[in-house]
Design a protein that fits this description.
A nine-stranded mixed beta sheet has the order 1-19-15-18-17-16-6-8-7. The chain has a six-stranded mixed beta sheet with strand order 10-4-3-14-21-20, with helices on one face. It has twelve helices and 21 strands. 35% of the residues lie in helices and 20% in strands. By secondary structure, the protein is an alpha/beta fold. The structure holds flavin-adenine dinucleotide.
Length: 463
């Protein structure tokens, strides 16, 4: 069997989408119109409808629920949030600690709702293990570990080479950091379960309905316009395709492969009994999970960005990216050199100019949005959704400010990305620098982070 390339994702290939939902039949009205049927849109519909059952909520989805990153990701439900360091600088350490605590609680919240709503998404609460593979990665790992502890994660554990191998035998791993605030899940099963739960509550979902433009109180599609006091943009990596949003969030590509199911003997040689999600400390980092059916699904950057903010070919992935991911797999686990790669795919996530996730409700227009999660959106989308619920309730006079509306990422403003070709050049240069730095760090003995990578981070506005 050869590798399936694209086809949305391995998760979609396994699960498929439910029966297609009807497109928007014509002009209509709603109390809240949500654009985008990924985690952000669906969680927002869920929490709003739970809070105010009589609300008339319409979700408009260009393709089908889970077509975007929510149906393609690595299935790391974890407590990372993009931009925490900057929020600490802007709003103080204590505000950033509150944001982190909210993220820790969000991992629990998603797992709890899955239980309440009987969403079976292969969720396994094994935490997150991040490994270091070189002296430079190890010193970054120690800094990272100390920083997380300073933001209140006192239950994080730092391991040496032997303790790391007791969990997962990654060749060349010299240490690791483990947090309990993470779980593995099957991304598409979560989307499907969530969409079904939302519909059961009485939310209307229209699929095959692309919104071409969002204006205050209007979501415009080729089939008609939805008029609503609140219109929420939940399109993350696809945002650039909406009128007026070309330079808002950069669509960053992430690519994945899934192996064939491994044999018991192969699993025996690897360990990984705890089913932690697995990452490394490279600049162009990798992420992986042990799937419920005994495969390794592993991702990394691949071709990071397409000229002109182009997004999608239904997940088709360049052969050199598939090969590069396979090389990482075999570098980590040399005994898997002959293992078949069953599926390769890609997707886009949204990157704001300052790399900070945001959730916003503009009270003067009723327009809201959430995203820019920069690769850690599985849990963050849930926190964003509950925050959008609170912001709308506050705006409509049904409640006052809440702990969530007071978090430092709420209503954060960020400048737009540069026009092309600068945008393309910046991302290409940054990732070329990261890859070069990773190579030098893996073959070198210095515990210092490669200077080119530090410079690239600064130029890109990441730190
Ligand atoms: C390969 C990959 C791996 C990742 N791994 C992880 C991970 O392991 N852990 C983690 O935390 N995060 C991960 N992420 C990021 C995470 O998946 C996303 O941040 C998150 O799913 C974003 O959810 P969303 O609902 O905001 O956007 P999406 O899931 O992208 O949903 C947006 C939806 O909007 C629809 N849409 C777009 N334009 C329009 C329009 N004009 N009109 C109507 N509908 C529209 C799309 O079809 C799509 O269904 C990964 C992302 C990728 C691509």
């Amino acid at each position: 069997m050869s590798t399936v390339n694209g086809g949305i994702s391995f998760w979609y290939g396994q699960e498929g989408a439910p029966a297609p939902r009807e497109p928007l039949p014509g002009d209509t009205t709603a109390d809240v119109c949500i654009v985008g049927g990924g985690y952000t849109g669906l969680w927002t519909a869920y929490y709003l409808k739970k809070a105010v059952p009589f609300l008339n909520i319409t979700v408009l989805e260009a393709k089908f629920c889970g077509y975007g990153a929510s149906g393609r990701n690595g299935g790391w439900l974890y407590n990372g949030i993009a931009g925490r360091a900057r929020y600490a600088k802007l709003h103080g350490h204590e505000a950033a600690v509150r944001l982190q605590q909210a993220m820790n609680a969000t991992v629990e919240e998603v797992l709890d709702v899955c239980e309440t709503e009987k969403i079976e998404a292969d969720q396994h609460r094994g935490g997150v293990l991040e490994v270091a593979l070189s002296p430079a990665q190890l010193s970054r790992l120690k800094d990272f570990h100390a920083t997380e502890a300073a933001f209140g994660e006192t239950d994080r554990e730092l391991y040496g080479a032997r303790e790391t191998a007791d969990r997962i035998r990654v060749t060349g791993a010299v240490g690791s950091s483990w947090t309990p605030h993470g779980a593995r899940l099957h991304p598409m099963k979560l989307v499907k379960g969530l969409a079904a739960a939302v519909e059961a509550l009485g939310v209307t979902i229209h699929e095959s309905t692309p919104v071409t433009e969002i204006r205050p109180k209007h979501a415009i599609t080729p089939y008609g316009t939805v008029r609503a006091p609140y219109v929420l943009r939940c399109t993350e990596g696809f945002t650039a395709s909406l009128a007026g949003q070309r330079r808002t969030w950069l669509p960053m590509n992430s690519s994945m492969i899934a192996t064939e199911p491994l044999s018991d003997a192969q699993w025996e040689s690897i360990g990984w009994a705890g089913r932690e999600t697995l990452g490394d400390m490279a600049h162009a980092y990798m992420y992986a999970q042990r799937t419920a059916d005994g495969r390794i699904a592993l991702g990394g950057r691949g071709v990071p960005y397409r000229y002109g903010s182009k997004t999608d070919n239904d997940g088709r992935t360049q052969p050199q990216t598939i090969e590069a991911l396979r090389e990482i797999l075999v570098r980590f686990f040399p005994q898997l050199a002959g293992v078949r790669v069953d599926h390769a795919w890609s997707g886009v996530l949204g990157v704001p100019r300052d790399w900070c996730a945001t959730v916003t409700l503009d009270r003067s227009t009723g327009l809201g949005w959430a995203g820019g999660y920069v690769g850690s959106g599985v849990a963050t989308a849930n926190l964003a959704a509950r925050t959008l619920r609170d912001l709308i309730q506050q705006d409509s006079g049904q409640s006052g400010p809440t702990d969530l509306t007071a978090l430092p990422w709420v209503n954060h403003k960020v400048r737009k990305w540069e026009p092309e070709p600068l945008r393309w050049l910046a991302v290409q240069t940054m990732y070329a620098a990261f890859r070069g730095a990773d190579r030098r760090e893996l073959t070198g003995h210095s515990a210092e982070t490669d200077r080119v990578a530090t410079l690239a981070d600064k130029v890109a506005g990441r730190h």
